[in-house]
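Entry 0007
Protein: Delta-12 fatty acid desaturase type 02
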Amino acid sequence: MGAGGCMSVSDTKSEQKNNPLKRVPSEKPPFTISDLKKVIPPHCFNRSLTRSFSYVVSDLIISFLLYHIATAYFHHLPPPLSSLAWLPYWITQGCVLTGVWVIAHECGHHAFSDYQFVDDTVGFLLHSALLVPYFSWKYSHRRHHSNTGSLDRDEVFVPKPRSKITWYSKYLNNPPGRIISMLATLTLGWPLYLAFNVSGRPYDRFASHYVPNSPIYNDRERLQIWLSDVGIATMSYFLYRLAVLKGVSWVICVYGVPLLIVNGFLVLITYLQHTHPSLPHYDGSEWDWLRGALATVDRDYGVLNKVFHNITDTHVAHHLFSTMPHYNAMEATKAVRPVLGEYYHLDETPWYVAMWREAKECLFVEPDGEEKGGVFWYKNKI
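Output (structure tokens):
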């Protein structure tokens, strides 16, 4: 299988633990996507409707129990416990709903079941409930998977070359500036991306996930973009009626703050999957799909790996085989790692440490030394 398969899983993991910033190879790998698929047990590609629904049901039951505890018992607690109790509710509910978000994301990849209509129905309902335009994001996200690592065509968290970084970046390249940037990204990044394509691929005209004639979409997709907007409008009206009935503060406490945490985790997870000092990006002269798919990194979020249905620590396998259900991705990752060798990257740095490090180290991309074009690496010296 060539040089990529010579290093054992244990050797690769040990070396990455010792030096998580060691660059992954940027050359064309000595294996193909077919080679990788052959070593994965065939059952890993099977989608079980019953098993997939079991994750939806369990997540929603936990979410409802958290809601019931908060609304039925918190007001009976003496102050200040009646107020302080909301903090663990917000965090726990936000994490559980992030898992719901991940399942809807699987539906967009047709990884939920063998039935496209079932996948789209479940994904539409779950994502709309979390104020995500399901079909709009499904199509832009698929384009991200088709163009991962490309500086010209990738859809999200596309790094800028040095010549295109904003004039104020140097004023934010310090601890206070990084704190401000991270807070803005985690709270506003997702809605700004959906509405205005912030951090997304540049287009020659206004691009938005809510606009059916946006350049993000082709003519066959535009009707479903309208349907996504209907889902958002329906959920928004439902929240408005709840606010009228229960009060704005009630809606914010029960739904609004957990949703902010969902959005924050979504941005953080995506950012850390594709932003790492060891990962290359490619221009049109070097990019190909397999190298782009391998320009991702698996992360360890501890117990949250399970809560997030392992989208965090099996992301490399997800980019290689996006229609594989999440409950088989761990087994598939274990199977392909010996073949991937140095082309597989796992960084077990705690996510909160990694977030700070990447914000500091990954400011723009450029080729090494005097090289022109081709392979680009993250740099931080403005």
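Curator remark: Residues 1-7 have pLDDT under 50 and may be disordered. The longest strand covers residues 375-379.
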